[in-house]
Amino acid sequence: GAVVSQHPSRVICKSGTSVKIECRSLDFQATTMFWYRQFPKKSLMLMATSNEGSKATYEQGVEKDKFLINHASLTLSTLTVTSAHPEDSSFYICSARGLAGGSNTGELFFGEGSRLTVL
Amino acid sequence: AQRVTQPEKLLSVFKGAPVELKCNYSYSGSPELFWYVQYSRQRLQLLLRHISRESIKGFTADLNKGETSFHLKKPFAQEEDSAMYYCALNRVNAGNNRKLIWGLGTSLAVNP
Questions:
Q1: Which of B97, B100, B104 sits opposite A43 (nearest CB)?
Q2: Where residue A105 falls among pLDDT bands split at 50, 70, 90?
Q3: What are the angstrom distances between the C-alpha of B93 and each of B11, B82, B96?
Q4: HSE-up of A39 (CA within 13 Å, CB side)?
Q5: In the prediction, which pLDDT does A74 show?
Q6: What is the pLDDT of residue B28?
Q7: What whole-number distance in Å separates Cα of residue A52 and Cα of residue A55?
């Protein structure tokens, strides 16, 4: 199946700094990528939908100035957590939907996730 | 409102017992439903989708439009089935953009 890679897998930063997480589709072109936050009890929260070459669409309650999303190419989307605070500590997961196999089946391919810890 | 409900946060069964993870949905259009699974320390991955009508790892799920359900079933649970299971509904908006609506997940623990 298609592969989505996230980097870094773990990052620790000081409060007030910014952190960038990359999400790459390795063997297909991802026209749409999604960024999720997974909470300790494992519920998934969709943060935003990222379409290549256009502005991301944020879900209600997600601060677009705090979580900057860029989808500059068909294989790369980045999430930047700006001025991070301890409450931003979480597991961030990206997923991608593309034309894998030449069809839009609705299936999402997930990255391995990035654990952010803000001290 | 479009919604996916997984009523059980945790389901614990013994090895060899049947298991059913419940999923109910609310959607005005024609639903496309999926089950995703996340094993310990692994990424989320697709388990099965209703349009395929397939059995993966012994799991099946039948779409019941009358009951608006898509329950995941396996007749004999195995320890390696222990994982977090998410039910998801593919929502298509007016611009033909697709987004998955997720249930909160059910943690399945299969005990020896």
A1: B104
A2: low
A3: 33, 34, 5
A4: 9
A5: 87
A6: 86
A7: 8
